Inverse folding.
């Protein structure tokens, strides 16, 4: 039976060019989307950018540009990184929250539902505002007077805004998460949000004065206020599907989402505020929220000051987009923080790809080209010596992308070992039939490896299958040694 899957990344802040964290989130989402398509599911994959934020406006001013042209330039850098020639992210829609036709109607329609539920009220607020988080925070969130995530002191604001009655939904959100109706993965993140819910959620400011923010969606019925960033941003998951517009076919077809893929720094917004909004509006909650960690470099957070920032574009120029995808899948844990250095990337590239996969493809297809004749020794007549399919597919269903990549790596190593043990290139000269049978077995196995690699290395997988179909070595090495 055909299943439907709606997979989303968070919408990224386009206040600067995309970094390796953006590349990681988009890549693991793409791997899951490609896997679901490969098993026959109907997939809708959403990514995009969160443009209605004050830090984006500040970045534009700092660059000496108007907000619109600045955004267009930065957004183009995201689309370029995600393009087929680089990371090859197979999204179905790239949403921009500045889009007044696609996003604004849904955001405003959702606001109106909260109003109808009696959950929007007007009040004054005085407190600390972190521009980095685009959120009001408290003294207990600070370390040495600064936000620990952004290393900046918050601003002290006193404003009259609209508030969302989030506190009303604490117990219901808690119940949905505890029962796994809203499943938070991994368990450590589930426990983290449940601990927060134990203390109770607070009502949150859902608007800011229009004269104090330069971007944002106008509050329905009150142009003196603009919708506050998280209220606006979280609505993207349904506005992209047509919620609030005349044509809401996609919304009816794909909501609720199968999984929101997010970084750990925005868990409380997605597992606290977002479920509260949906409950207030009478809409189904997402099925899962998959929370990954951060990428560090040399054990430290990447920063220009430390000089340890690794640019994904620079890696792609040197090694190719497929190599970057592979490292992110194979060497970064999906559940904890992961580390990368230029040295570790190069070592992994040479070991896993140039000397591993690339060498295996070259050796097998050289033997096939010289000694294997598919017409006389059909591949289906010799079994593929692999384990059952179910085990590795279960890894992707559990979001353990690293374990899946390690499994495929193990298959590559196993076939290399089989070549060393059987030496079919020698055997075929002594016993042609026996040698051809082993070569056919290896070609079969290589085809299976290409199939397994398809979600992670789609272009490489296609090249391997093309080589097998043509029964010849690839014209160029898949991964030249660096």
């Amino acid at each position: 039976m055909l299943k439907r899957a709606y997979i989303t990344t968070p919408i990224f802040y386009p206040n600067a060019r995309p970094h390796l964290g953006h590349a990681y989130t988009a890549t693991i989402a793409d791997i899951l989307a490609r896997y679901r398509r490969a098993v026959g599911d109907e997939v809708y994959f959403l990514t995009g950018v969160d443009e209605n934020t004050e830090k984006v406006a500040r970045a534009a001013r700092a660059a000496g540009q108007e907000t619109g042209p600045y955004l267009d330039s930065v957004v183009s850098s995201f689309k370029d990184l995600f393009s087929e020639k680089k990371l090859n992210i197979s999204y179905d829609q790239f949403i921009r929250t500045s889009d007044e036709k696609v996003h604004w109607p849904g955001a405003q329609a959702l606001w109106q539902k909260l109003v109808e539920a009696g959950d929007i009220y007007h009040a004054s607020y005085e407190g600390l505002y972190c521009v980095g988080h685009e959120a009001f925070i408290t003294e207990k969130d600070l370390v040495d007077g600064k936000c620990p995530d952004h290393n900046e002191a918050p601003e002290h604001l006193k404003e009259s805004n609209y508030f969302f009655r989030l506190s009303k939904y604490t117990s219901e959100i808690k119940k949905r998460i505890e029962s796994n109706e809203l499943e938070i993965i991994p368990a450590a993140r589930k426990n983290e949000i449940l601990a927060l819910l134990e203390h109770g959620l607070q009502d949150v400011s859902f608007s800011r004065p229009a004269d104090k923010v330069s971007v944002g969606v106008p509050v329905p019925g009150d142009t003196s206020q603009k919708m506050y960033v998280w209220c606006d941003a979280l609505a993207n998951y349904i506005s992209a599907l047509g919620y609030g517009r005349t044509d809401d076919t996609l919304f009816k077809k794909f909501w609720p989402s199968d999984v929101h893929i997010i970084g750990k720094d925005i868990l409380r917004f997605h597992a606290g505020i977002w479920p509260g909004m949906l409950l207030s509006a009478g809409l189904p909650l997402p099925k899962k929220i998959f929370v990954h960690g951060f990428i560090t470099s040399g054990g430290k957070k990447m920063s220009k000051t430390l000089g340890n920032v690794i640019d994904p574009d620079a890696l792609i120029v040197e090694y190719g987009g497929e190599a970057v995808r592979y490292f992110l899948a194979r060497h970064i844990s999906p559940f904890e923080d992961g580390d990368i250095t230029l040295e570790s990337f190069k070592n992994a590239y040479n070991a896993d790809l140039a000397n591993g996969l690339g060498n295996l493809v070259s050796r097998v297809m050289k033997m096939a080209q010289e000694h294997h004749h598919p017409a006389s020794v059909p591949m289906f007549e010799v079994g593929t010596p692999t384990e059952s399919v179910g085990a590795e597919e279960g890894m992707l269903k559990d979001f353990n992308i690293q374990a899946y990549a390690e499994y495929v790596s193990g298959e590559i190593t196993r076939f290399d070992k089989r070549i060393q043990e059987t030496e079919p290139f020698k055997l075929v000269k002594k016993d042609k039939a026996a040698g051809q049978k082993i070569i056919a077995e290896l070609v079969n196995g290589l085809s299976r490896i290409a199939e397994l690699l398809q979600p992670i290395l789609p272009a490489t997988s296609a090249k391997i299958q093309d080589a097998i179909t043509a029964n010849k070595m690839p014209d160029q090495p898949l991964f030249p040694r660096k």
The domain at 341-470 is CATH 1.10.730.10 (Isoleucyl-tRNA Synthetase; Domain 1). Residues 367 and 425 are 6 Å apart (CA to CA).
